[in-house]
Amino acid sequence: MRIQALLASAALLALATSSLAAPLVDGALGDHAVLQRGRPIVLTGKALPGEAVSANLAGKTVSAPADKAGRFRLVLPALQAGGPYRLLIDAPSGQQLIDDLLIGDVFLCSGQSNMELTTEQAQNSFQIYGASDPQIRLMSVPKRLAFAPLDKPDAPPAWTAATPATIGKFSAVCFYIGQSLRETTKAPIGLIHASWGGSRISAWLSPDGLEQAGLGEPAKTLALYTRDTAAAEKAAAGQWETWWRDTSGLAQGREPWRDDTGLAWKPVPVIGSFNRWGLPEMKGYLGMVWFKTEVTLTAEQARQASVLNLGSIDDADRTWVNGQPVGGTSLGRARQYRLKPGVLREGRNVILVNADNVYADGGMLGPASALKLQFDDGTSLPLDQGWLYAPAGRSKSNAPRSPWDDINGAGTLYNGMIAPLGPVSLKGVAWYQGESDTGLPGYDRRLAALMKDWRTRFETPNLAFAIVQLSAYGDTAKRPVENGWATVRDVQRRVAEADGHAAVVVTIDHGDPLDIHPGEKQEVGRRAARAMRALAYSEAVAPSGPRIAGAARDAGGGVTLTFKDVTGALSPRSGAVAIGFELCGAGVCRFANGLAEGAKVVLSGDGQPIDRVRYAWAESPVVNLFDDADLPVGPFEVAVP
């Protein structure tokens, strides 16, 4: 028996070091991966049509024939935590050995830049050097956009063990979730990180999820884009133009791309960020700015097809030539818009650009040398001079983006980064996103649709979701105001509570008023892990800390708030009263202090109408109410019956 075992090991070693055919399996499976314990292990891939494919793992072998397209699906029995194991996939056309597999719990971490922020960029990065753990495995999904769901990744997934070299480049929040769960579960932990800074939630939805989220039209336009790009571009431009008319109140025919005489044009000082022009009106400016220039063309130039090169524009643009929409793009990448014959004309031509800046530097970033009109005969006309600008202010609602448009599109990141993960089984999902959806109506529907969508995608109806609430950033609010970030936080809370298998991770006490990417990620990871312990492991811990349960009027005209999931009692820090509360009624909100009594907070009336109470309702609110587990009360708005 010992000789047979040695021979088998030698055969596997020879297989591992020999030159093999292309990988047979696809999805998130690769060397050093973690497979979800307690669930059947599903393998999919491609072989030759009709040939038998087998898989052997932990002494169990299964086989099935490939279909007419060569696709196969194998299901191995569930395993308990353990390993390492080797998985052998065998077919007449080739073999594949996947080595150093662990069986444990697998988590997907996704969202935008605060999930993307790496451990070496976060606070306490020195702790990386003592955080090695061979039982924690990391895999970052390469950034990829796609207009239709991909059935496999572009390259085999790169799983690694957690070492100082790999931890530092990995998502900080995601790693700290895994590290915390390792301490409590003692099982191997697999972490899959798939996020993209600045992304809207719509980009992470599948075609079916987009329908559920009320985004059926963008989904159809994206599908049209794969068949007829020109028709889809025209449809997207029409949607933007309709939005502009509705938002600005201008009648048809008075829009800037048809009549720009109503704008207060000024010369552009230099091609580059308008925030750096040295002009007081543009310093720190967030909002839309119109740009235009005019060029005179010969008959020979006008009759040709050409490419309009506008360099980099931040954050998003919508561009017209002679009143005809020619394109629109997000982020800072170079704009290159193809102009068909007939768009240009002999003599005067007007190029009009709307640049929408939503964060940091904005405008036509250049470089100036990149701005030119390139004709099909190889000649070009520079466009680096003669530009005018006119600020248009900040719109009340965000402009629509093209469905295929990078990270703000409809399903582009789901198609390129989630769909290719294959039939991976998950224990839970950590979701940290919402900044880019601030000001967009319907986030509640989109967030609920995402959870339903991904539960269907990963075939786990009760898949746990830890939704990280937006941290504090921006104005501390000297008086009660309506606030988009506070609204998103409350939507996150409401959607999680209505779901039953989700919880918010409160981070309001770990933000930074001056940095949208607060450095404290370790505690965020611990709190997200706590939520997972309650949701995915059924531990008797409060998933979110103290949560508002209800409000009742007092006989004296005040309001008593009742909280649930309170560990011990509520108490204010650095004072005798709890701050951050607002009494609202008759369209007006007023600051109010609260007295904590166990799991309740009493707010005294002020003789004015009260129909609701808000808490921590600002971009960067000052709060001081915690329970005995040092967990803060999170932002909320509650009706007072």
From TrEMBL:
One of this protein's GO BP terms?
A: carbohydrate metabolic process
Q: Which InterPro entries match?
A: Galactose-bd-like_sf, SASA, SGNH_hydro_sf, SIAE
Give the signal sequence positions: 1-21
Ranges where the Sialate O-acetylesterase domain occurs: 105-207, 412-532
Q: Name one GO molecular function term.
A: sialate O-acetylesterase activity
Query: Which Pfam families does this entry report, sorted A to Z?
Result: SASA (PF03629)
Key words, A-Z: Hydrolase, Signal
Q: Which domain of life is it from?
A: Bacteria
Against SUPFAM superfamilies, the record matches this protein to:
Galactose-binding domain-like, SGNH hydrolase
Protein name per its UniProtKB record? 9-O-acetylesterase
| Organism field | Caulobacter segnis
Q: What is the lineage of its organism?
A: Bacteria, Pseudomonadati, Pseudomonadota, Alphaproteobacteria, Caulobacterales
